[in-house]
Amino acid sequence: MKLFSKNMKRITAAVLSALLLCAAPLSYADDTVADMEAKQTELANKKADLENKISSLESQEADKTEYLTLLSEKIDTIKEQIDTANSDITVLNTSIKKLEKELSDSADQISDTMELLKKRLAVLYSAGCTVGTLEILFNSESLHDFSMRAEAVSTITRHDKQLIDTVAAYMNETKAQREELEKEKTALADAKKLYESSEEELKQLESDNTALLEQIRSDKSSAETELSRTEEEEYVLANMMSAKIAEMQQQMAQAKATPTPTPVPTVEPTPTPTPVPEEEVDDNGNVMPTPTPTPVPTVKPTPTPTPVPQPSYDDDYSGESFAWPVPGWTGVSCAFGNGHYGMDIPASRGTPIVASRSGRVMTANGSDDWGYSWGYYVSIYHDSTYSTLYAHMSSVAVSEGQWVNKGDVIGYVGDTGYSFGDHCHFEVYQNGTRVDPSQFV
């Protein structure tokens, strides 16, 4: 059954992965790298929440399992106590029945003794003894008769008294024993009722907690499935980010390959000389004055602007080191790890934040103060391997597509987005994956 469950999980994960891979181009095709970074952060936070939830559910599952084990042990103990009580009650019932038989036998013995006594009295009566013992003796007709009567009365009295006393004492003792056993039986019966009541309560607790345990396991299974789906989506997104960055690199390489036009110097045109008109003579032979020609304005051609050279996307800065992004503030309030994918550097509001390396600004969000939880933030593409992100700014000092050099101010420390105090959240991406910034700065 466990093997089947594991295989089903693997099949489910494979199907989810295939679905996500098919859907990814449609989902992320129009997203920018910044959008993907934000989605990556969202997935990372979701993954951390799910892992915490699963950890909590596992703890609850362990507690409930342990509690159910204790309940089961208590139920077994109470069942043993009930069985013992039933056994003791059975023994007592047997003893009580035995005593009741003995009491019945004693009563029969007393009854027989009484019958014997009656017969003896009848003998005395037939002998003429109708009065008390003294009368029986004094009414004897002879000494022999007196002696016989005295012996008979003495024998009857002594023997019957002993017999009656013995039987009566035995009956009293047996009755006392029976009463004691009845008390023990009653006490055991009461204890048995308590045990049975406790057993019912424990069984109800066991049933309730078993249902809770099943719910916990169901919730854990759902969370594990969701975590698996999130991890698959995270994996697909990372691949899409790598593809997007590769596409950007290709575009930048093409931009670099396009030659920058060489400015052509402007040549001033040579002015055409104005011809001198010949002198004109009137009819009288007089030379007429030469009219002054109206000057034609010379139009100069518009000079071709000299292009200002800009650094290309792929200027080689691969050997450039990283600089600390918040000069003068070297403390770290929260390091990389445990679901935190950057380094938090606390500083006063308005403190300048500088580019850690030279590169081109990919994203400059200075209008959306939430900004995927980063608030106002800037991301910079450095080369085919590295890019950086600076979040929670109070304001942004650059624009998208702008080239910045290492150490240029790109924004100012703030508390926008999902933040608890003024600081700069600094991230380093290596081949599209966030890595610990402390190994670079």
Automatic annotation (TrEMBL):
GO MF assignments: metalloendopeptidase activity
Entry keyword annotation includes Transmembrane: no
Superkingdom in the source lineage: Bacteria
Assigned keywords, A-Z: Coiled coil, Signal
Gene3D superfamilies referenced in this protein's UniProt entry, alphabetically: 6.10.250.3150, Glucose Permease (Domain IIA) (2.70.70.10)
Compositionally biased intervals (Pro residues): 260-276, 290-310
SUPFAM superfamilies: Duplicated hybrid motif
Protein name: Peptidoglycan DD-metalloendopeptidase family protein
Domain (Peptidoglycan hydrolase PcsB coiled-coil): residue spans on this chain: 107-170
Organism from which the protein derives: Hominenteromicrobium mulieris
CDD domains: M23_peptidase
